[in-house]
Amino acid sequence: MSQVQKSMSLANPAPPFTDTIQKIAAAVGGIGLLFMILALSGNGTIQNSTWLFTSLSLIMAGTVIYSWRAYMTLPEGIKNNGVWFSSLASKGLWGWVLGIVLTGFYVVLYWFPQYLGLGGEDAANTGLVAFFDPLSRMLSGNSASQWFVYGTLYTVAILAFGIKFILKYRHNKYQIIRTISVMFFQLGFAFLIPEIMQKLQYPYYSFTNMWPLNYYFFYDWNLNTLLGAGNVGLFMLLFGLAMVFIISPTLTYFYGKRWYCSWVCGCGGLAETAGDPFRHLSDKSLKAWKIERWMIHGVLVFVTLMTVAVIYSYYTGDRNVLITKPIAIGLIVLLGAFVIAIVQVNKKDINLSKDKLSLLISGIVGVIVLLAVIAYFTGSFVIDGGLLRSWYGFAIGSAFSGVVGVGFYPLMGSRVWCRFGCPMAALLGLQQKFFSRFRITTNGGQCISCGNCSTYCEMGIDVRSYAQKGQNIVRASCVGCGICAAVCPRGVLKLENGSVDLQNKTTELKAIHIAEGDVRIL
Amino acid sequence: MHIAIIGNGISGITAARFIRKLSDHKITVISAETDHFFSRTALMYIYMGHMRYEDTKPYEDWFWEKNRIELKRGYVEQIDTKGKKLTFKAGDTLSYDKLILATGSKPNKFGWPGQDLKRVHGLYSYQDLEAMEKYSDGLKRAVVVGGGLIGLEMAEMFHSRHIPVTILVREKSYWNGVMPPEESEMINREIYRHKIDLQLSEELDEIIDNGQGEACAVVTKSGKRIECGFVGLTAGVSPNIKFLADTGIETKRGILVNEHLETSIPDVYAIGDCSEQREPKPGRRSVEAIWYTGRMMGETVAYNICGKSVAYDPGIWFNSAKFLDIEYQVYGDVRANQPEAHKMIYWEHPDGRKSIRIIYDEDQGHIVGFNLMGVRFRHEVCEKWIREKTNIEAVITNLGLANFDPEFYEKHEAEVVNIYNLQSEKKVSLKPERSWNKVFAFLKS
Question: Where are the beta strands (DSSP E) in B339-444?
Fold first, then answer.
């Protein structure tokens, strides 16, 4: 299967010939990008609002016109022809080039913003950051930062590629509405409102970005800013808490984590739009799933510990968290119980025999007892909250969610961060698995095991393994994007919410076995 | 006990998996096609670039060793049913205690001149896919012969690579031997909409040799000559049983089996496409080359081999397919020409790409079948209605329970009820219930 021409096209199916209009559209978008490159290279003559808006408009227009021609000239329907023949979308040369360029951009953005032209305390912005000053002044009244540049480009990407996605799935109302939702929340709640709040002298605050994704919510500077901003600040603080403890659990109960991950969240928004051409690159192996579970729950534990330490410091004013014997032992036992709970719950999936499982659990209990004994004899010890915080910010907040999260789109699929790193996804996932009405139902015996569902699952869920057994799909990682149901050629999958079978959502109820009751799902 | 299974398709593999679940017997699965089980139905998606070959494997490669299912690559040339021994083309042998034949189908050839030329292939095996790939390079036009499901799949494959393709269909309308006229007409329209050259009432007469043993054109019965570099033969399939000629295993169209899937020779079973039921269940054909019947036979044979006598019963007919961008599902008894006693409700969307056909018995009033284009219905709900001979009015009143379309899709149940009311001059009203909770309650009732 290798004689096929590898193409550079992001639109699937790759058109055999780009028509004149598409060539012009590519040129238009290219010119828009060129302006940014000129600005970055320090060209002073284009540093004004006209050039900025022209540049952004050209990029948007180029992308939209190109994809309009790619999709609207074809009958509506699934557009996956040639996906694995595309160099860009199947880890070919162009995929690697894009991956390296994106990763490089993020490294500069996070750690070397001066190269983008970020000014110092006294110095004005230059280069690309200065290029965005006019828009930033218009919205927030301040000059731009590298984050403003990033936020603008991010929003433009979600809008432009969101329109592309809608054209691609114009036959599917769920996809259309969902995409409009992520575009709306990105433009309004993640981009415009926080900027405008600043202009109105209120703190920068994104209503849709909640803890633990927003890991700095409980940081002293954030709490101080909110508490120092009068009633509005107090409202923001309370709203943030309500999101974590009331709004999110309620919505997740009713609709699963999709209400956030594929309808509201900005990270999800980018993955669903700009990341869509790479969704099939997620690893579907059992091994990847095992790694995923340890990593994502590890990050959740990390962010929880860090936040506890940060809040402790906030109240005591001490950077270090002093842990006395009872608290230490309590924490160790709690953590151990949590690990055992995870093992217990996942024991079916991790495929351990009973003996091995008992061995594993007694091992964990042993470690807990040992640690507790050590804690008892060594007296109190300290956790350096500041150190935890800076490591979390560097390793998870920047390196994982940003650099790897988007930079690796063309190599590991569009949901690398959401799948392996996001503590929010971990938290919502735990709830989705145990206390949510959401599941994907399968349609009796219609599955033909073709594998389209698994291939196009951006979260790397082997959907087929459930569908071919006629088993409903309840997975912590499922973000409910609905693409599995869309690409299924036999109408087998449906995203559904229901409360009647909350505790046994995966129990078989299917017509596919000839002798029901005799054979367990394996 | 050693169980040898010839064929690693869905039937053979399902048999192996269930035997493993039920027993500790030694299992060997033999295939000349590929090392591992893959989904045959997904071959088209490999060619179209939707998936890679490895994506079509339903089980990862470690699965077989972990479940102690031995895989052997080889072509069985001789079966000694007395000595219980298989002889492979390479000369080696394998002894067995019980043998399962799951050798699938081969594309039909009806004695057309040139049918065995190079560049002439069906679409069944991995090797067929390789051939299509090989001959696609520089291909100017392909001709596909046959108006069934695989024919259109093959046409869609070439079309996806922007290779012009002509479909020759003997009948006046696509698949009209199976589909009622409106649905058949809908498929015609869908093919034209994709700008594929569908030629109805055209039958293959001859495939022309270019002088080097390769096909270069076809000539139809009406005398039309179409230049082409590939000919796809997709006029149905028949059981792949030629290699059984001297074994004494009784065959007709396929390998004859009783309801326990036993052949005429003790300890030899046959399942899937290659088998033929001596006494098929009512509403069922004796040879059914369908994915799920293979799966069901695989499970059934496992029970019978592992000491639990279970009769093969595929239940109420169902099937599904996709005609380019139109999905198709069928439940129950739907025929191209309905018998007198069957009455029906037919609704079609104004855009001509969706339809719901509900068939019921005029005298008794009970539901008989559903034929759906571009609309998804829930298998279990339809099956329960049909099995329980539910009255048509109870069915259409609760039609929302059957809907399986994604959220936010247009609902068409009210229009179906309207048509029924107009036809019968009654005033049935639709219940709005369609949630999972209601479906669950209904299925449990």
Answer: 342-348, 355-361, 367-373
